[in-house]
Amino acid sequence: MSLASLSDDQRFGLSRRVSLPGPLHLDGGATLSPVEIAYETYGTLDRDAGNAILVCHALTGDHHLASPHPRTGKPGWWQRMVGPGKPIDTNRFFVVCANVLGSCMGSSGPASINPVTGRAWGMAFPVITIRDMVRAQALLLDHLGIARLAAVVGGSMGGMQALSWAATYPQRVAAAVVIASTARHTAQNIAFHEVGRQAVMADPNWREGDYYDREAPARGLAVARMAAHITYLSEAGLTEKFGRRLQAREAKSFGFDADFQVESYLRHQGLSFTDRFDANSYLYITRAMDYYDLAEEHGGRLANAFASATRFCLVSFDTDWLYPTAESRAIVQALNAAGAPVSFVELSSPYGHDAFLLDSPELDRIVAGFLGA
């Protein structure tokens, strides 16, 4: 793709899907060829391709960063952050957001078609890692003619990708913004994911992952989403929003009365999730997150993962118990040991892990200031 073709027609929210020949060599030893990647772009790429920012999405996110979701009609998941005059300013930057490898929103994953069999991959899709997701994004940037990123930005699993970018391709990343994230999953993180995976696999409609021409395991996936969503919130936020308030007895889901408002909320979150996400993709991506251990990938020492060529900004939230501030501090200490320039701030919010997706003027100022420096 030429730079000229990118300059005029990609002003804001252009959604595309590309088939790249590959091969993409995966950490597990398998290869993918071709590699399908769905992505959106915002803004205009400079002639020297030096103003590109890659934004990486979280577990259940997608590439619809700042434009309406075509299936749900809802605004892009970070619309408040990305756009003209916003913290990630598309008047200045060319922003790329790619659907991760293994997802179900247009990129290669278990729900996509296996070119050999002509059927959905299902559980025959190869095991993937966070680093594999980054390698697929690097293929996309090569296709777009972007050799070096002005910045890579991500929250939660997106932050893992941002860290992996800086570790895997340090000469291709000028700056990294890592929000509410971690360098590896704890036993507690893995335990919550395993509960979700078991819920999916216990659904009789899962059928060992071979369900694409039949009824999907929606109930199991809904329960998995409910369990995970609890970890995205905080006790203070749940108490403020719901407390122990009851609701109408006629509200039902899964055959049980939802006596409490918080029950109804979680059930709604679970059921609405099944309308847009694939159960097998959920299994694959959560497993990739659990495998992620940046220190282990670099000889057991986290500082070995970082080069001083990239400058970093880390942000945590005081009520985030999924990836608490201690996780960010450990990354900052490793960056200091590596001699990498880093700034860090813990923000106060009642909203827990999801705070980075919600209105946060302080976060907006930090991101805008860092990218504008």
UniProtKB/TrEMBL annotation:
Catalyzed reactions per annotation: L-homoserine + acetyl-CoA = O-acetyl-L-homoserine + CoA
InterPro entries membership: AB_hydrolase_1 (IPR000073), AB_hydrolase_fold (IPR029058), HAT_MetX-like (IPR008220)
Enzyme Commission number(s): 2.3.1.31
GO molecular function: homoserine O-acetyltransferase activity
Lineage: superkingdom: Bacteria
Residues annotated as domain AB hydrolase-1: 51-358
Pathway(s) served: Amino-acid biosynthesis; L-methionine biosynthesis via de novo pathway; O-acetyl-L-homoserine from L-homoserine: step 1/1
Cytoplasm keyword on record: yes
Primary localization: cytoplasm
Subcellular localization: Cytoplasm
Binding site residues for substrate: 225, 354
Segments forming a coiled coil: none
Top-level class of the enzyme under EC nomenclature: transferase
Active site per the UniProt annotation: 156, 320, 353
Transmembrane segments: none
Keywords from the named record: Acyltransferase, Amino-acid biosynthesis, Cytoplasm, Methionine biosynthesis, Transferase
Family to which this protein belongs: Belongs to the AB hydrolase superfamily. MetX family.
Role played: Transfers an acetyl group from acetyl-CoA to L-homoserine, forming acetyl-L-homoserine.
Subunit structure: Homodimer.
Matches recorded under NCBIfam families: homoserO_Ac_trn, PRK00175.1
Name this polypeptide is given: Homoserine O-acetyltransferase
Organism of this sequence: Sphingomonas hominis
Gene: metXA
